From TrEMBL:
Originating organism: Heyndrickxia coagulans DSM 1 = ATCC 7050
Residue ranges annotated for the Rieske domain, each copy included: 26-113
The name this protein goes by in its record: Rieske [2Fe-2S] domain-containing protein
GO cellular component: membrane
Cofactor(s) the protein requires to work: [2Fe-2S] cluster
């Protein structure tokens, strides 16, 4: 029997916990409370969304589900990015991939959806 201990990565032991925690977290900010040059997880028609309002007040909405493995991204106010706590993917405030392992951007959301 061959054991591949080198495939075990301690940093990935909390992936399942992060996946479940992100899906159940209900502490979302109000879209109305979002200031210019600020991002947050909000609710749009009862669904989670990542919202970023640029310095001119333009609003960008993205699905907060990471396109790599489905964990919920969180807003990083220092870098103005959406960061995945599971495997480290990072997305621009408008959803484009900044750093993998994700290869696809976050899905854009229309505020009327």
């Amino acid at each position: 029997m061959q054991i591949h201990l080198h495939l075990y990565t301690p940093a990935n032991t909390d992936v399942a916990g992060q996946l479940v925690k992100g899906k159940l977290d209900m502490r979302d900010q109000s879209l109305d409370a979002l200031k210019n040059d600020e991002g947050a997880v909000v609710r749009i028609n009862g669904k989670r969304a990542g919202a970023y309002k640029d310095q001119d007040g333009n609003l960008y909405l993205v699905d907060t589900t990471c396109t790599h493995m489905g964990c919920e991204v969180k807003w990083n106010s220092g870098d103005r990015t959406w960061d995945c706590p599971c495997h480290g993917s990072r997305f621009a405030c408008t959803g484009e991939v900044v750093e993998g392992p994700a290869k696809e951007p976050l899905k854009k959301i229309d505020q009327q959806d």
